[in-house]
Design a protein that fits this description.
The complex is a heterotrimer of chains A (about 325), B (about 250) and C (about 290). Chain B contains 9 helices and 10 strands. Chain B is an alpha/beta fold and about 250 residues long. The longest helix of chain B has 16 residues. The chains are: A mainly alpha (about 325), B alpha/beta (about 250), C mainly alpha (about 290). Chains in contact: A-B, A-C, B-C.
């Protein structure tokens, strides 16, 4: 544990040069996020922000598997959705206490990530994508038709308990949960482990030749990814208090990709940013809702073609230009 | 055949692909500190043999022993841990990462396994120095010229702290000058006590470096001896001159 | 009992032939371009809706509507390849992501154009044929026969025409094909168009049997994936046989277990197979 912390510290330093600047942005963000309920006490705005926080976790969790490790997951909604359903079903039908339901929800996402991850360890490229896609499609078919007696289909499972009543408390709860999740994922991503994951993404054979147990690290990425998506799904279930088939749709899987591409794949912070921007945009302007799927996917297509590095790559470009005179810092 | 055979022993090793015998009942051993060259025409099974020794392929039959241990069923990363490192004929750098990061990744694993005590960055820098790439450390690997990518491959393999280093055609595609400079690097690696097995298509460099040479043809060993002996061998001359241009997948 | 079973098997074979047709489109694109086209289902959707547009909305003859749809989808496929695939073809991850997203874009455009509700194309052939004491709709038999005719034509075209030979050569080795003077990019563009056409043709043939809705393409897409993986890459006979096995399995599950499970079973099978024996499916060891 100590070794790991040290390792993280070192890499952090390596990235550093401008420590104060590095902390400035997150601090300003946290400050603004903390006072928003006071300066803009609109229930609707807070609701949108809560959703944004949930999707930030969801997007960042996709990124650790696909953005960092290069294992394309086309069905990420399965982790989010399974967890949400398990929370809702256990809580309403089995009457388990909410905290236990949430634990079971997250655990189910964890187990699913093992179930999907294990066969995927031996697959590469398109076969992996097809497999993740098929898993989520099965879940969608179950929820939308084959097991409708359990899922409630379009009607959903209603009457889920909530941890705290009220928009403002839920806002703070979601904010804290989001900050912790993103912080953990970001620290892992910028640690030695993150570097190893990147190596696997770049070239799996070469990573093996470096002595990396690629199987173990890929499974680890699956587990982290599935678990954090499960956390987002569980929070969603207790906040919305209703879970419908929306949580396992292909559209929701596609939005993980849209969030990440907008912000910048393989950066954790980028996908978090993307989730924020797109959620606020689409939940904020109700008339856009009908066009959401269309626009999300147009965004994906355009970013893949014209700005595959997302908004974060623009920032890097600016920074590089700034530094050009001053030489390259770091290690 | 068993001269100091306790270091690396390849015993009756075969690999068949859909009826094609890429490696066909090959037996040889390598002594600690030796410099072995493996030559042979295209498709002779050289790279397949490397993939078997490093665990990237599973043999159809036969065994591989390293320092007295049967490693036939081990995974590639487990063999790296034991001290077997390799480079790839078609280079596989981590393109988006810097040269330094490329090497650090291998060093990191070596540190975790207790093979190096020092900080992996210092160690990586030393390795880069050794192959003459330190001045490129902050460059993204994808921007390196071809000759230096070949060196990066070697640096990355060295950073795993190997006892046995397998080099798969490190000279291919290099200019005369680059060949000379890389030849020096490889020579000094061997002088540091690392056992080297070198596959080469370009015979000149291989002959100059190797103490002993094995010639493969159609997956079989057709000659095994000093460079001088091998050059005089009838079968070898026939394989190279008489039946050149055999066309199956490059091996 | 036996009669019902025979009936079911026959109708399964008929449907399966059409699945195989759709899957072949995916195989061709995979073989020639080495990409998995996640938009394949969207071309299926387009084929169905264009047939609906021409035959129901514009009142054209069914055969004419079918041919016109196929030609239009070919053009769409070619433009799609040029504009979206060509610039990024070497980046596997991006191709998958882009074709996934583009499928939604096409689906949404269909939704805004034709509306989200179910549509249907009335069968243009009526009556039933009897087989071994069982009976099937003439419509299904006709669609199946056309599908088999298309597959046969395709096999012949790949073997004997200039474009077909070039496609096989590019599939074998892009570089060598280029060296031999084949315009690789052009062949890939055309292959992509053909791939789209096969999806569209399957949809057009199925449209008098199944309902139309904007998201209709996902199910055949995933079935095509499954068939391609089961049937072995690039093997036309394997694909056709697996398609038929799928069709029969689906119809039998629908009848004997439950109609809502019939769509789930193939994917559970796919997941099981892929978990047990992933290497056997694409067997590229070196």
């Amino acid at each position: 544990m100590r070794g790991m912390r040290q390792g993280m510290g070192q890499v952090g330093q390596g990235m550093g040069l401008m420590q104060p600047k590095k902390f400035a942005v997150p601090l300003v963000f946290v400050a603004i996020a903390t006072i928003i309920p006071f300066i803009a006490p609109s229930v609707y705005l807070l609701h949108v922000l809560i959703l944004a926080h949930i999707f930030v976790i969801y997007a960042a969790s996709w990124d650790i598997l696909t953005g960092y490790t290069g294992q394309l997951n086309l069905g990420h909604a399965m982790f989010f959705g399974l967890s949400a359903y398990v929370v809702a079903i256990t809580n309403t039908m089995l009457k388990t206490p909410l905290f236990l339901s949430v634990l079971m929800g997250v655990a189910s996402a964890f187990i699913l990530s093992v179930a999907v991850g294990l066969p995927c360890l031996r697959l590469r490229g398109p076969y992996l994508a097809i497999t993740t896609f098929s898993f989520s499609w099965v879940l969608f078919l179950l929820a939308s038709s084959a097991m409708i007696w359990l899922s409630g289909g379009e009607e959903g499972v209603r009457g889920v308990k909530t941890f705290i009543v009220g928009t403002i408390p839920n806002y703070y709860l979601s904010l804290v949960l989001m900050l912790i999740s993103v912080y953990i994922l970001y620290r892992i991503a910028s640690s030695e482990t993150g570097l190893i994951l990147k190596a696997i993404k770049e070239d799996e054979d070469a990573a093996m030749a470096c002595g990396i147990d690629t199987t173990r690290y890929k499974l680890l990425a699956f587990l982290m990814s599935g678990t954090f998506a499960g956390i987002a799904g569980a929070f969603y279930a207790q906040y919305m208090r209703i879970v419908t088939v929306d949580v396992v749709t292909l559209e929701l899987s596609a939005s993980a990709i849209a969030f990440s591409l907008v912000g910048g794949i393989g950066t954790i912070i980028g996908p978090a940013m993307g989730a924020y921007i797109l959620t606020i945009l689409f939940e904020g302007f109700a008339w856009l809702a009908d066009y959401r799927v269309l626009i999300y996917n147009l965004i994906i297509v355009s970013f893949v073609l014209f700005l595959p590095g997302g908004l974060m790559s623009l920032r890097d470009l600016l920074r590089r230009r700034e530094e050009e005179g001053g030489g390259v810092g770091g290690a | 055949m068993s001269r100091s055979g306790e270091f690396l022993e390849v015993i009756n090793l075969s690999k068949h692909f859909k009826g094609l015998r890429a490696v066909d009942d090959v037996t040889f051993s390598v002594g600690n500190g030796e410099f072995l060259g493996i030559i042979g025409p295209n498709g002779a099974g050289k790279t397949t043999l490397f993939n078997l020794i490093t665990g990237f392929l599973k043999p159809t039959s036969g065994e591989i022993h390293f320092v007295g241990r049967d490693i036939t069923g081990m995974k590639p990363h487990e063999r790296v841990k034991l001290g077997i490192a390799r480079t790839f004929q078609v280079t596989k750098p981590f393109k988006k990462l810097t040269v330094m990061e490329n090497v650090i990744i291998a060093a990191l694993i070596a540190r975790k396994q207790g093979k190096i005590k020092e900080d992996e960055k210092n160690f990586a820098a030393e390795v880069l120095e050794k192959v003459g790439l330190l001045h490129r450390k902050d460059m993204a690997a994808e921007n390196l010229p071809h000759g230096e990518v070949k060196k990066l491959e070697i640096a990355r393999a060295l950073a795993t702290k190997p006892e046995l280093l397998l080099l798969d055609e490190p000279f291919s595609g290099l200019t005369g000058e680059e060949v000379a400079s890389l030849q020096e690097v490889i020579k000094s690696i061997h002088e540091d006590g690392i056992t080297v097995i070198l596959i080469e298509h370009v015979l000149k460099a291989c002959m100059a470096l190797s103490e002993r040479i094995i010639v493969l043809n159609y997956g079989k060993i057709i000659a095994d001896g000093t460079p001088e002996e091998v050059c005089m061998d009838k079968q070898v001359i026939e394989a190279y001159l008489g039946r050149r241009g055999l066309e199956f997948a490059s091996g | 009992m036996i009669e019902t079973l025979l009936n079911l098997i026959v109708s399964g074979i008929l449907i399966g032939g059409l699945y195989a047709l759709a899957a072949l489109g995916l195989t061709i694109v995979l073989g020639v371009m080495r990409i998995i086209n996640v938009s394949h289902g969207a071309f299926y959707t387009l084929g169905a809706y264009f047939t609906f547009l021409f035959s129901v909305m514009l009142g054209m003859n069914y055969i004419a509507a079918f041919l016109l749809s196929v030609v239009i989808v070919f053009a769409v496929g070619v433009i799609y390849e040029r504009a979206l695939i060509k610039p990024i073809r070497k980046e596997e991850l991006n191709v998958l992501i882009l074709t996934f997203a583009a499928a939604f874009v096409i689906e949404e455009i269909v939704k805004f154009t034709f509306g989200p509700r179910y549509r249907n194309i009335p069968p243009y052939l009526s009556g039933t044929v009897t087989f071994f004491g069982g009976s099937v709709d003439v419509q299904r038999v006709f669609s199946f026969v056309i599908a088999i005719a298309i597959v046969t034509l395709l096999i012949l075209a790949l073997r004997f025409t200039k474009v077909g030979k070039a496609m096989r050569m590019v599939a074998e080795d892009e570089e060598v094909a280029g060296l031999l003077g084949i315009n690789v990019e052009r062949i890939q563009m055309v292959s992509f168009g053909f791939g789209a056409v096969l999806a569209a043709a399957a949809a057009a043939l199925l449209s008098p049997i199944y309902l139309l809705y904007p998201a209709m393409g996902w199910d055949p897409l995933l079935k095509a994936f499954a068939i391609v993986i089961f049937g072995g890459m690039g093997s036309i006979t394997g694909t056709v046989l697996t398609g038929i096995i799928f069709g029969v399995a689906e119809v039998l599950t629908g009848y004997y277990i439950s109609p809502t499970w019939k769509t789930v079973v193939p994917f559970i099978l796919l997941i099981l197979i892929i978990s047990v024996k992933p290497t056997g499916l694409f067997g590229e060891e070196e």
